[in-house]
Amino acid sequence: MASELTGLLRQGSLRALFQPIVDRTTRVAIGHEGLIRGPVDSPLHLPGALFASAAQEDCTLELERASVEAVLRDFAALGLPGRLFFNVLPRTLLLWEDFASWLEQALVRYRLDPHEIVVEITEHGLTDDDDRLVAAVRPLRAMGCDIALDDLGAGFSGLKSWSMIRPDFVKVDRYFVSGIETDPVRAEILRSVVDMACALGCRVIAEGVENAGQCELVLDLGVDHVQGYFLGHPQAVPRVSAVALAPFDRAAAVIADCAEHLARAVPPLSAADTVGRAVEVFRREPSWVALAVVDGGRPMGLIRRDQLLTLLSRPLHPEIYNRKPVTAVMEPRPVLVDARARLEQVSRLVTGGADGGHADEFIITRHGSYLGVGRMIDLLREITAQQIEVARHANPLTGLPGNGEIKARISEWLTRRRPFVACHLDVDHFKAFNDCYGYARGDQVLLHVATALTQAMRPRVDFIGHVGGDDFVFLLRSQDWSLRLLSLLDDLAASLLKFHDAGHREAGGLAGHDRDGRERIFPLLSASVAVVVVDGGSGSTLDSIAEQLRRTKQAAKGQAGNSCVLSMPDGRLEDLHGRPARQHGFVTEGEGAVLRASA
Predict the structure, then answer these.
(1) β-strands 526-534, 509-513 pairing
(2) What does the buried/exposed string (b/e) look like for 484-517 if buried means 16 or more CB atoms within 10 Å of the residue's CB?
(3) Alpha-carbon separation of residue 67 from 8, 100, 115, 373, 512 (angstroms)
């Protein structure tokens, strides 16, 4: 077989197939990945066999060279739109010392633009020689090529490589996509990758998407691009299946609170423009406070109106600077913000300077290219508007979302058939506490419970709402939700007692009157939590979840002290340790407020 490989390389018999990579927003292919193949009737048809044979023959470098050549040749011959992605092993980059210059010459030969090339460095085979690998990547970037880290999560050093190489794209290994519909752990990992990529200005490609459910879910988790058999098989002449675009129609194209809405469409300056040209633009457009400087669409720096005019106000400075290129006076390291970044991330970026200051203007990019100029004043205005809108529907004491938003969130997750855990927390004996200590201390208790809930839940994954009074509803999608509930109960069991006076703590209760006006001794504050596991199937409704919560909360409140009762999909009642609830003396009748769909 080794001799057959030698013949294939000598004859140039390798051919490339191309698989589309589809953008979540435009619904078209941003590019194609070139995948190498041997002759169809050969045992070396698939790449696995090709590279295994090359390893035996010790000619992997020759195979890589022939593979890249074939991909470039066939891509150019087809005239495919968008960008070309192709794989290179890290070991090859280290051994093939003149790869960058060879690639530059090959691109000239096939009339391909380096800015349309994305070199994928697969995590398989990443070496410990990170400094040399970073150095090998540097000339590729200088040419204008982008870098992708392929198969993230398949090896042991993915995050380290991400940190050092700073890729433009991250391709998540297909393991985390396969079965993502039924495995919340994989969804959590992909969500975390998207969050990191958004903060770093890196785009995420989900590989191995094979059905509509996977496609809809990865889009819901926020990936930028999708690749897999569901959208199109590798073919000599690739195309995107029209049927596969339905999940893109259902997915939100733009996140509502992202930086894209802050971008002002201010035309940038070219690196070749002069300072005099920048002055002319500022005088013609008095409302523009900053201009970006770009090279090939990529931001290089920022020129601020006030700083430039102050510089030129000094004697002889106009004569000295007006003919110089704008790069001589630009700020070379402006704050760059990806268009998908959430406003909270934008705020951290623009206020996170090493000197403790903030950037009044910053550059917003999309896919690494210039999109517009953002201003701090617009960011503050948008954040304030969001806070006002949230406050309109929030509980006035805790600031948590109220009943309307709780119901909307449950309905949304039911519509998307997402599994989650619905919980209702009630503070036991809260009326007696208020009667004894007054409403001011009662409000302190509610604020404490709201804080404990917020600290126990995962931001942007879980949801916390305040129905009113001492009733809280929260929704969990974290994989470790049961551990979070246990931690919450332990926290409240220890902390709620501190709101009582020492005498009442020693006595184990306090005197008060019940709803019928009869005097009695009430236990100290505790928390009862009702939990309903929603499996994401089509059988659950807002009404059925509300009814399950009501009945489960009755069972939880039937036990003395802090308690948590789970209503399983099959109707069983259990505690957090999986033990049947009725073995602990829980009752199933009683009264208590709970979220109602009709409210």
Answers:
(1) unpaired
(2) bbeebbebbeeebeebbeeebeeeeebebeeeee
(3) 11, 15, 20, 41, 83
Q: How far is CA 354 from CA 198, 350, 510, in A?
A: 21, 11, 54
Mean pLDDT of all residues belonging to the chain: 84
CA–CA distance from 68 to each of 22, 73, 87, 115 (Å)? 22, 8, 8, 16
Which residue among 382, 411, 446 closes a domain?
382
Other CB atoms within 10 A of residue 161 CB? 23
- Residue with the bigger pLDDT between 43 and 432: it is 432
In a domain, 17, yes or no: yes
pLDDT tens digit string along 47-79?
A: 888 888 887 877 888 888 889 999 999 999 999
Residue 296 pLDDT > 80, yes or no? yes
Do 110 and 135 lie in one domain? The reply is yes
> How far apart, in whole angstroms, are the C-alpha atoms of residue 449 and residue 526?
11
Q: Model's pTM, two decimal places?
A: 0.58
- Dihedral class, residue 567 (left if φ above 0, else alpha if ψ from -120 to 50, else beta): beta
Instruction: Indicate whether 472 and 542 sit together in one domain.
Output: yes
pLDDT for residue 598: 33
pLDDT grade for 593, boundaries at 50, 70 and 90:
very low
- Distance separating alpha carbons of residues 341 and 222, to the nearest angstrom: 11
Same domain, 344 and 440: no
504: domain range?
395-584
With respect to residue 331, please indicate whether it lies within any of the assigned structural domains. Answer: yes
Tokens linked to 485? 């509930």
375: left (phi over 0), alpha (psi -120 to 50) or beta: beta
Q: Where do we find the tokens 């033990």?
A: 579
In a domain, 280, yes or no: yes
Q: Check: CB of residue 11 under 8 Å from CB of residue 39.
A: no
> Is the same domain home to 402 and 320?
no
DSSP letter at 135?
H
Contact 473, 595 (CB under 8 A): yes
3-class SS shares of the chain: helix, strand, coil, % to 5? 45, 25, 35
pLDDT of residue 357: 55
The separation between the first and the last C-alpha atoms of the chain, rounded to the nearest angstrom, is 73
